[in-house]
């Protein structure tokens, strides 16, 4: 309810109550929190107190995830390494060391699900000693624990872990998210990521108050998850025996995420992007193993990129296998959302299948074939008590799409990735809830050229001059481009209510574990703040200029926590506020 109230205030044009909250949040502090809270005050003159080495966080009994979070944050705080580049101008109050943080939660049993209340209030006593954190749910309490951890820093000498550990005193934070869905999509179908890298990513998401890990598990390139009912898919479709996610791995990832208030939404993309299924079930996959771009003509392509294969909607085996897949996935993953994919159906692939072409010659259409498939899978997903999520193509693709009757808005969410705000508007105008992942703003893989080999384009030294540099979605999306985007741009207040949030997307044609952190962070942090408390100040102005130094500080803190986030400016800029701006 608190989240809904904030969104309604936001959508109704920045009225007085929201402006008051924003004004409190807009104040500049010696130490800041990312994402910026909805409302934060720090009594003047700004003061800090030492943190007692025996600090304890007291959580109410009854929720094991909150109990583990309290223990984890107590350890995190006591081992804090962060030293601000610019020394905070605060008065240190001696003799009042903070030794106790007490949590109070109204509803410990509230499940982690879409729309759960994540609001909290945090107070640190002006003279130290104690702090209190109140929240409606355990998940809101976890957000408050993260805020509390970011109010601490190291001062004085003694090396990285030495010196005095301080925490801001006289602070009050009242906070809640603007959007209930704040996610990151990671593609493990093109590149396998060890479990440890996935866990680190989820942990960093929680630190940024992001709450949805959209796991794009499989794609044409590989099928890396072991499913009890369909073991052949991973045996024949994974890159190798050591590049599979076992049932034990999945349970560990889901539980790890739960303990951080992060939902795991699984995606098994189909009927497109399924070349990796062909090893196990060649009779169910059309055009598998063929060269993706015969004759070099895009109009004759068999896939959007190398790796050809789409499930054949005419094959009985297709429905046998997808039924087992959906049943297994909805057993392994408890979340209420199931992402069914359905993007980039390539007409050439189905036309290359003799059985499908014969059906088309008899009067069938490719859209009809897709609708046949979706009309079988969608009720299956819903029968498992899930909301089905699809990429926008299933409805908006110009060549192959389904009717709205096949995907009722009541049980369907569409994720948009093309044409920026235009497609978002088309989706909500059709009555669907929308997740925004517009490639022009939220695709983190863009701007690194293309991965195709044997490309004669580069024979011409001017071929990619003043272009996207070989990247279909170039240029590179800077943190400011991510931060500045309004996902409800151009929508009426009524339409905007159907936008449940957004996700940055990390497609992995050119990404593996060695570069993952730097590609994702801190650009994903930029979206995290925009969707948590907005990207505007109390006057309605974009606040990216003010956010720059805060994001640098947050990036430095993340690095201290073991995340290899890339820098956004030279260190020189942080020590000379305003000198690196484009406009003085």
UniProtKB/TrEMBL annotation:
<keyword id="KW-0326">Glycosidase</keyword>
<dbReference type="Pfam" id="PF14845">
    <property type="entry name" value="Glycohydro_20b2"/>
</dbReference>
<dbReference type="InterPro" id="IPR017853">
    <property type="entry name" value="GH"/>
</dbReference>
<keyword id="KW-0732">Signal</keyword>
<feature type="domain" description="Glycoside hydrolase family 20 catalytic">
    <location>
        <begin position="179"/>
        <end position="534"/>
    </location>
</feature>
<protein>
    <recommendedName>
        <fullName>Beta-hexosaminidase</fullName>
        <ecNumber>3.2.1.52</ecNumber>
    </recommendedName>
</protein>
<dbReference type="InterPro" id="IPR015883">
    <property type="entry name" value="Glyco_hydro_20_cat"/>
</dbReference>
<dbReference type="InterPro" id="IPR029018">
    <property type="entry name" value="Hex-like_dom2"/>
</dbReference>
<feature type="signal peptide">
    <location>
        <begin position="1"/>
        <end position="27"/>
    </location>
</feature>
<keyword id="KW-0378">Hydrolase</keyword>
<dbReference type="InterPro" id="IPR025705">
    <property type="entry name" value="Beta_hexosaminidase_sua/sub"/>
</dbReference>
<dbReference type="Pfam" id="PF00728">
    <property type="entry name" value="Glyco_hydro_20"/>
</dbReference>
<dbReference type="InterPro" id="IPR029019">
    <property type="entry name" value="HEX_eukaryotic_N"/>
</dbReference>
<dbReference type="GO" id="GO:0004563">
    <property type="term" value="F:beta-N-acetylhexosaminidase activity"/>
</dbReference>
<feature type="active site" description="Proton donor">
    <location>
        <position position="344"/>
    </location>
</feature>
<feature type="domain" description="Beta-hexosaminidase eukaryotic type N-terminal">
    <location>
        <begin position="33"/>
        <end position="151"/>
    </location>
</feature>
<comment type="similarity">
    <text>Belongs to the glycosyl hydrolase 20 family.</text>
</comment>
<keyword id="KW-0325">Glycoprotein</keyword>
